[in-house]
Design goal:
about 260 residues; alpha/beta; TIM Barrel; 8 strands
């Protein structure tokens, strides 16, 4: 999605940084902001939030009546069965989720999710009418050409189990170079732009995908969106958005970028 008239997409994963009480304080503050912010009301900025699982129903209630969508940070690839501790896409959809994150680097390194597992989870999300937020990104710092090759390969692997559907699937890809996660600064705009261009081209050629957005997410923070312009379709945010005041800055930044692009168009 690189049309300048398309909305800027912002996603926030709360990971496990906040307890339920702090999560609710954050959700109530951001909900109040989204109810009054013209960019959200007019659809020029689209927002989704991924809280921890125990807080999910309460966060959904906090955003009731707003255009903000809610999702989960993971799912299992089976819908039913003897899978202790697992959460299915069927149940996530039933409690009001619209999105689910798949393939984050922390899931890969800490919980052992490999390419096959990520592919199964992606297919399960689509089967249950959830929009996957697929995280991809090179492991080590390298030049942009090598990073693009590795990242596109990761995307293709994740799409292996996806079956065509009438009308096609919606997909969000979050480009997160793993060497930037947890750092103070994101990758350079030139590096990000090269990789995202390759990802967009690969997605555009896939007949199974109806609509896609490619976000940037490695240490994304206030200032990143202005730096990138429309090299990305938006941001996938972590800890830098966990302060409502910092998130408000990013939301204002997205609105300003959208306005400037519309004037140029």
């Amino acid at each position: 999605m690189d049309n300048i008239e398309s909305p800027i997409v912002l996603g926030v994963s709360l990971k496990l940084y906040l307890d339920v009480a702090d999560t609710m304080h954050w959700a109530q503050s951001v909900s109040k902001l989204t109810r009054t912010h013209p960019a959200i009301a007019q659809g020029r900025v689209r927002l989704f939030v991924l809280p921890s699982l125990p807080a999910l129903p309460a966060v959904k209630d906090a955003f009731r009546g707003t255009p903000v969508s809610i999702g989960a940070q993971d799912l299992f690839w089976k819908d039913r069965g003897a899978f202790t501790g697992a959460v299915s896409g069927t149940d996530l959809r039933a409690v009001g989720c619209s999105y689910v994150e798949v393939g984050h680097a922390e899931r890969r390194t800490i919980f052992g999710d490999d390419d096959e597992t990520v592919g199964r989870k992606l297919a399960a999300a689509l089967r249950n009418h959830l929009t996957p937020v697929l995280c991809v990104g090179e492991t080590e710092k390298s030049d942009s050409a090598q990073a693009a090759l590795e990242t596109v390969h990761e995307l293709e692997s994740a799409l292996t189990d996806v079956v065509p559907s009438d009308g096609g699937h919606d997909l969000i890809v979050a480009y997160e170079p793993r060497w930037t996660i947890g750092q103070t600064q994101p990758a350079s705009p030139e590096h990000i732009g090269r990789v995202i261009t390759e990802l967009r081209q690969r997605l555009a050629s896939d007949h199974r995908i109806r609509a896609s957005s490619v976000l940037y997410g490695g240490s994304a923070q206030p200032g990143t969106l202005s730096m990138l312009g429309r090299k990305a379709d938006g941001l996938f945010l972590g800890r830098f958005a966990h302060d409502p005041k910092q998130f408000a800055l990013i939301l204002d930044e997205a609105a300003a970028l959208n306005n400037s692009q519309l004037r140029m168009g």
